[in-house]
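Team,

Forwarding the record for the chain on the shared tracking sheet. I've put the sequence and predicted structure together so nobody has to dig through attachments.
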Amino acid sequence: MEDFAMLVHKLTEPAKQNDTAAVREVLRDAKRLHFLWQPTPMQQEAIDRAVLSCLPEGGEEQYLKGWAVTSVNEWGGDQERLFILSSKRCYRVKFDFDAKQVVASKAISMSEILRVEYGSFRAASNSLTTWVWKKEIEQQQGFRVYTRERDGNKSINEVAREQMAPVLGDAPPPEDEFYREYRALGAEEEPWREEVFAQELAAAFMAASILSGSSFDVRPAEMSKEVPGGVFSMFYNSLNLGKYSKTA
């Protein structure tokens, strides 16, 4: 991919003019000028169907781009999803590639986002699982969308802390922010794709922030990574059990 600062400039300048079509064209990268992520024909069909299903009619909310991603759930399990970015929201979509339809979706308004972080991961020091898989975890890159409201269910770690609170006599402090983590789909076979993917999403979120009139920060970070499901989640991921379709 071209220089990250140049990509940011090419996306944010038209965003400042509220030119969603120009932002969308840069992200589409039809002539491969910027070497951005390109969907397979099957992925593009799924993205098109997801856009029709999720985005409201009327034209006030403009589609920017969609990606096939790995979404990391509250157990640390990798799940195949579509990620749709618009001028007002981002959507996480579970798509049935056989039935060619949206199974479930979750929308996050740009106004709900506290910040977006992107970059590499650092294995959490308080976990045996992350110590065993430290090398694998620290080779990964991705991005996180932080919100004030929980995006998903409680992790097993959170549930355990709450249940142990009466025994320990020390209730866990309330959390004031939550995040959802994403990585490039299929990056296990081509790890170099993750840095490109994370930077593309970061630049796209910068443009979306401007278009929506929101003021969240998009910044690089070394993100501490836990795997709440422990060894079970790592084996789940190694067997690709969260990948819905082998052909997508």
